[in-house]
Amino acid sequence: FGSTHPDLFRATGIAYFAAVALSGIPAHQRVPGLQAQALLMVLTDSAAIVLLMHASGGIQSGLGILLAASVAGGSLLTGGRTGLLFAAIAALALLIEQSYTQLYEHYATPAYTQAGFLGLTVFAIAVLGHVLAQRARQSAELASRREFDLENLTQLNDHIIRRSQTGVLVVDANNRIRHSNQAAAQLIGRPDLGQGQSLRGASLDLARQLLHWRRAPDEPIAPFPVAGGDRELQASFTHLGGGEGGGILVSLQDHSAQALRTQQDKLSALGRLTASIAHEIRNPLSAISHAGQLLEESPDLARSDRRLLQIVQTNASRVNEIIENVLQLSRRTEVAPSPVPIRECLQEFAENFGLGHDWVETPVRVRVDPTDLIIEVDRSQLYQILTILCENSVAHSGQEPESLEIELTAGVDEGSAASYIEVADNGGGIPQEAVERLFEPFFTTSGQGTGLGLYIAKELSAVNRARLEYRPPARGGSCFRLLFPRIEPERT
Fold first, then answer.
1. Which DSSP letter does residue 148 get?
2. Beta carbons of 226 and 188 less than 8 angstroms apart
3. Angle, CA 172 vertex, CA 182 and CA 207 arms, to 5°
4. Tens digit of pLDDT for each residue in 382-426?
5. Global confidence as pTM
6. Are strands 406-412 and 177-180 parallel, antiparallel or unpaired?
7. Using CA atoms, how far apart are residues 247 and 67, in angstroms rounded to an integer?
8. Is the pLDDT of residue 158 over 80?
9. Which of 104, 206, 257, 326 is least enclosed by beta carbons within 10 angstroms?
10. Separation CA 359–CA 365 (nearest Å)
C-alpha cells in the first residue's frame, strides 16, 4: 500500500480517518437528513478509496473492492434508486482514475477491463441492496402493523378482562398471583388482591382446589363457599404457555347467582307445564271425583263396590294434591325479599301452626340467638318452607301430638358467619338410605305422601338464595337447616 505515491497515500489516509471520525457528529444530531448524510458519506468513501487505490498502484492493489461495501451500505440505508446513483458514482470514479493513469502516468498499465468488471460488481451489489432494502422496509411495515394490532388486542383483552363479571387469575408454578381483575377480588372478598400475593393467602379453599386439580385434572370441580357463606364460587383451571410447568389460568364464577338463574328458568318452565297439567288432567280428574261422589250416594251400591269406590276417591284426591303442590310451586316464580326480624317471624309462625292443628298447647318451641337477628327473604315463602318442614315432622315423626316436640332455632353459623334457621323434632329420624334422595321430586318414605314437599322447600330456598340441608342430630329425630346471607341490624 502506498508504493506508487506514499505521500498521497499518507495524506488521504489521515483525511479519510478524520472525515469518518467527524461524521459521527451529524449522525448523532440527525442533521442533515439520512439521504443527505448517506450521499455525503458515499461520495467521501468513493473519493478516498480511489485515491488510496491510485497511490498503491491502481486497480491491481485490490483496494477498489472496498467500494462495494460502501455502495451496499448506502443502498440499504437509503433504499429506492439512490443505490444506483451510488454505484454510478463509484464506477465513474474508477474510470476517472484509469483515464488519469493512462494520460499522465505512462509507466503504469491501464486496466479498463478490471475496472469495468469492478463497476459491474458495484452495480450488481447496488441492485441487490435495493431489493434487500425494499424487503426490509416491507418487513418493518408489517412488524409495525402487527405491533399496532397486538397493542390494540392487548388493550382490548385488558378491557374485556377488567369489565368481565367472571373472575380471572393467572397463577405461576409457585402458586403466586401474577395477574387478576377486579371481579376476582370481589368474588373472593379480597379488595387488596394483587400481583405477587400467595394464592393460599388470598383464598385457602381455592388453593386447595388448585392443588387437587393438579393431582387429578380430570375429576369434576365442586363449588366452594367464600367468606361470609352467602354464596358459592365455581372455579375452572387451564394450563397456559409451556404446559404443566407454565402458568395456570383460573376462572371464577358466582355459582349461587348461576344456580339462582337456573332455578328461575326451571320455575318458569314448570309454570308453563303446570298450566297444561291443570287443563289436561284436572278437568277429567274433577269428573272422576264428581262421578265417585254421585256413585257413593247410590243406595244399591254393594259393600265390596264401596271399598273399590273408596280406593278410587283416595287416589283421585292424592293426584289432585300433587297437582296443587306443583301449581303452588309454579306460582312462586316472583320473589319479593325484604329484611325480616327472625324472632318475631318464628313466634308468629309457631302460634299460627298450632292454631291450624287445633292444639291447646303448641309443641313448637322458638329459640333465637342473637334476638335481633335479621335475614332477607320473601316472608310468605319462608312460611311455606317452614310449614312443609313442620308438617313433615307431624306426619313422619311417629309421635302423638301431646308428645311431639318441634324446635325452631335461629342463629349465626360460626364457621361461615351465615344466618340459619333449624327445624328439629324428636321423632324417629330419617333412614340413612333415604337421606341422599330426600330432595328428589316424588320420593317419599310414606305411602300417603306425594314426595313433593321437600322438593318444593328446596326450590323455594334456592330462589331466596338460601341452602336447605339435612343434618341428623346426635340425640335422634331429624333436623333441617336453612342457611341465609346475614344482614346486620341497623343501630340508632
1. H
2. yes
3. 70
4. 888 898 898 888 887 666 666 788 899 999 887 667 889 999 988
5. 0.45
6. unpaired
7. 54
8. no
9. 104
10. 14
List C-alpha distances in Å: 57 to 66, 73, 83, 107, 265: 15, 26, 28, 11, 98
For residue 433, how many C-alpha atoms fall within 13 Å in the half-sphere facing its CB?
1
* CA distances to 52, 236, 238, 245, 415 from 217, in Å: 75, 10, 10, 15, 29
Give the whole-angstrom CA distance, residue 412 versus residue 420.
6
* DSSP codes of every residue in 341-380: EHHHHHHHHHHHHHHHTT-SS--EEEEESSTT-EEEE-HH
> What φ, ψ does residue 289 adopt, rounded to 5°?
-65, -40
Q: Per the structure block, which three cell numbers stand in for 179?
A: 395477574
pLDDT tens figures, 237-246: 888 866 566 6
Does a cis peptide bond (omega within 30 degrees of 0) precede residue 6?
no
Asked if pLDDT for residue 207 goes beyond 80, the answer is yes
Lowest-confidence region among 26-30, 123-127, 358-362, 459-463:
358-362
Contacts of residue 226, defined as CB under 8 A and 6 or more positions apart, other chains included, come to 187, 188, 189, 203, 205, 232, 233
Integer Cα distance of 388 and 457 in angstroms: 7
Residue 326 has a pLDDT of 65
pLDDT above 60 for 491 = no
How many helices (DSSP H) and strands (DSSP E) are in the chain? 16, 13
Query: 111 Cβ partners below 8 Å, 6+ apart?
Result: 58, 59, 60, 98
Q: Give the Cα separation of 175 and 32 in Å (integer).
A: 55
Contacts (Cβ under 8 Å, ≥6 apart) of 422: 407, 408, 409, 410, 471, 479, 480, 481, 482
Residue 6 C-alpha cell reads as: 506514499
Query: Nearest to residue 428, comparing CAs of 388, 488, 475?
Result: 475
* Summary mean pLDDT of the chain: 80
Side-chain half-sphere CA neighbours of 411 within 13 A? 10
Give the Cα separation of 39 and 26 in Å (integer). 13
Measured from the Cβ of residue 307, the count of other Cβ atoms closer than 10 Å reads 9
Confidence (pLDDT) at 55: 85
Q: How far is Cα 385 from Cα 456, in angstroms, rounded to an integer?
A: 8
CB distance 455 to 441 below 8 Å = yes
* Cβ-contact 455, 439 below 8 angstroms: yes
